[in-house]
Amino acid sequence: MSAKKLLIIFLLSVAFFVSGKLHAQRFIGSLSAGMNLAQVDGDEEYGFKKVGWNIGPAITIPFGKSRKWSVTVELLFSQIGSKQKSQYLNDTVIDSTQVRYYDGYKLNLTYVQIPVLIHFTDKKSVAGGIGFLYGQLVDVKEWEDHNDERGTFRTSTDLSGPYSKYDLQVIADVRIRLWKRLWINGRYGYSIIPIRTREFQNPFVLTDTWTRKQYNNVITFRLSYFFNEEVPLKKPKN
Questions:
Q1: Residue ranges of domains in the chain, CATH in brackets
Q2: pTM of the model as a whole
């Protein structure tokens, strides 16, 4: 079953679950903006060094008598990927000169994402949630430089491959109220299906190759403003 079909089934299930609880309830609109810190597990690079935008609107649907539970659906523009600065490999020395075989790597993946989360809000000031995220790849650029006969490698930008056109992630989300309708939001996401399978080659032993599956690994920090949320009243001082 494709990721798109899984997403449709999940959305229909959520709609069916909350449909009986939405009487006299209202939709809460919000807008979030912030940044992603990303890496791609399986690309032989390490660290959340790729920085990109994470921005878009959302609709939250409270349900239940206490209205502490809610379903949130977002539409995001999101930039993730991987990045590595130039480095020396194994301190290789040829004719008394240190040879830099690896001049850096950069991968830019741009997605339109649809996260769907279920949140629980405690005391109207802290909320935690879990859910899934479907991402449609809309742009990809990749650079990998080698200071040897292989030269510079750059993938095609016409979405013909080698990266999958979609990404399905499991996500965990925490947000804290800063002031009235303004919240600070932290999120972690990880792909549950590979975005690519790649073969690597040892630059010193060309017959030494290996294959690894690659996954998006993303930490997100944002500010979120809820336009028509009920602001909790301050308790009067004794």
A1: 3-226 (2.40.160.20)
A2: 0.80
